[in-house]
Amino acid sequence: MKMDVLLGLQWGDEGKGKVVDFLAPKYDIVARFQGGPNAGHTLEFDGIKHVLHQIPSGIFREKLKNIIGNGVVLDPVVLKKEIEGLKKFNIKISENLFVSKKATIILPTHKLLDAAYEKSKGDKKIGSTLKGIGPTYQDKIGRVAIRVGDILSPDFKEKYQALLERHLSILNYYSHDVGELPELEKAFFNAVEFFKQLNLVETEYEVNEALDSGKKVLAEGAQGSLLDIDFGSYPFVTSSNTMTSGACSGLGVAPMRIGDVFGIFKAYCTRVGSGPFPTELFDSTGEEMRREGNEFGSTTGRPRRCGWIDLPALKYSIMINGVTQLFMMKADVLNIFKEIKICTHYLLEDGSKVDKLSFDLGEKEVTPVYITMKGWDQSLSHVSSYDEFPEELRQYTEYLERELGVPISMVSVGPDRKQTILK
Ligand code: GDP
Ligand code: IMO
Ligand code: MG
User: Fold this and answer.
1) What's the angle, vertex CA 74, arms to CA 261 and CA 148, rounded to 5?
2) Which atom in ligand 2 lies closest to the alpha carbon of residue 129?
3) Taking 90 as the threshold, does the pLDDT of residue 287 lie above it?
């Protein structure tokens, strides 16, 4: 079998959690391959609303293995809290959660470093979630990080101490207050003890052997392609490869074993944190989108910046990921608009019109070029099949399909599992 990949094509929060949960019954394994507690994936079903940060979004489905792969950076304190939060649902974590021994551990000082680095950047700050993501990946690439398997080693404490001292010297350089460290360390070591009881394994074998035996695997991306460390709006990005290739390196699966790539996008666009956003709206339309879409961060609660859909950016994400199917999310949020805009090109300072993303997207003035379509201007609550779509929504969907060159095989019209229309 081949491994399917599901990922966000914009700046994150496209609705990945909802769709992974919806698709999960078709799979034997759901696996996270990158990111960490910066992610917030929301699931809604049977009157329950639940946000997952590190645990894969297949966890509510029975008889399904959930894997946290080697490419993830993992905070034991957050994981313990997440697992405790799932207790009331009678989920058998000991049977259906597996963590890679090669995943990297977020230490308390990584979070302090995140804060120190952000503070030092002043008004150029990234708008990080401050979960320690950047500093942890930095240590991984710097070959000094602590991995999950290390917590089982007799010299774990020495490894911790060596990295701690390194971090303290950097924090001292930034004159960053470390007063809360003893408290953070207490919670950390407590969570590490808890962590030892989990299934800590070589997840690359779990995934490849499952594929060999005909089982179906879905890789669940975090963040979005425009936050990718290589191809996103650098430096306003996260510190991992959020794209399809990240699923290969983050799980140990060969590129030739990738099957479908499901690219998820909102019917409009949002971004949380700093960085370029060509179609951002600063007017009442943007505010209405935020209100209708309840666009407040699932991890930090920050208001999300909102704007119209951006085709040059989507085309770019589709190209770098090899997307085979598109899923359009939150179509219902546009119900309130009489007219809907679609950005087809960017007008640059020199007067040229382009539909490509440049290296310096964030530094130059970019004016979006829009076409306007008539909105459907009605509720979608009655819609349960594509045939029942208002004509204008059908036209919007089909226009996007033509422009993007990939079929939109699913349209989401509400946060609940059931509000999902297959086309
Ligand atoms: P993720 O990070 O990609 O999993 O997305 P988030 O969970 O951070 O943000 C998506 C938000 O939109 C969540 O609050 C979801 O419950 C909600 N949502 C998902 N799909 C839809 C939809 O089709 N319509 C509406 N109105 N909300 C949706
Ligand atoms: P999900 O998986 C939206 C953003 C942050 C910041 C930048 C870097 O829920 O879609 P980091 O904490 O990684 O150093 O932050 O990336 N960011 C996200 N934005 N959704 C996410 O995850 C995000 N994870 C990180 O706001 O701008
Ligand atoms: Mg999110």
Assistant:
1) 110
2) 12
3) yes
For residue 301, name the pLDDT band (cuts at 50, 70, 90): confident
Atom 20 in ligand 2: residue holding the nearest Cα: 12
- Give residue-wise pLDDT tens across range 384-410: 999 999 999 999 999 999 999 999 999
Per-state percent for the chain, helix, strand, coil, to nearest 5: 40, 25, 40
Burial label for 134, CB within 10 Å (0-12, 13-18, 19+), is buried
H-only helix segments in 156-260? 156-173, 181-195, 203-212, 244-251
Considering the entire predicted model, what is its pTM? 0.97
* Cα end-to-end distance, the chain, whole Å: 24
Q: Is the CB of 35 under 6 A from ligand 1?
A: no
pLDDT at 244: 98
Tokens standing for residue 59: 């966890």
Q: Does residue 360 have a pLDDT over 90?
A: no
Distance from Cα 18 to the centre of ligand 1, integer Å: 7
* Three-state secondary structure call for residue 150: helix
Report DSSP letters for 112-144, one per residue.
HHHHHHHHHTGGG------SSHHHHHHHHHTT-
Mean pLDDT (the chain, rounded): 97
Residue with tokens 């699931």: 43
Indicate the SS3 state at residue 296. strand
Residue 68: strand, helix, or coil: strand
CB 129: neighbour CB atoms within 10 A?
Answer: 22
Question: pLDDT (tens digit, 9 = 90+) per residue, 168-215?
Answer: 999 999 999 999 999 999 999 999 999 999 999 999 999 999 999 999
220 lines ligand 1 (CB under 6 A): no
Atom of ligand 1 nearest to the CA of 8: 3
Q: How far is the CA of 53 from the centre of ligand 1 (A)?
A: 14
Look up residue 56 and give its two tokens. 């894969």
- Give catalytic residues, as residue numbers: 13, 41
- By the CB criterion, residues less than 5 angstroms from ion ligand 3 are 13, 40, 298
Alpha carbon of 380 to ligand 1 centroid (Å): 16
Separation of CA 422 and ligand 2 centre (Å): 28
- Strand-pair partners of 269: 307
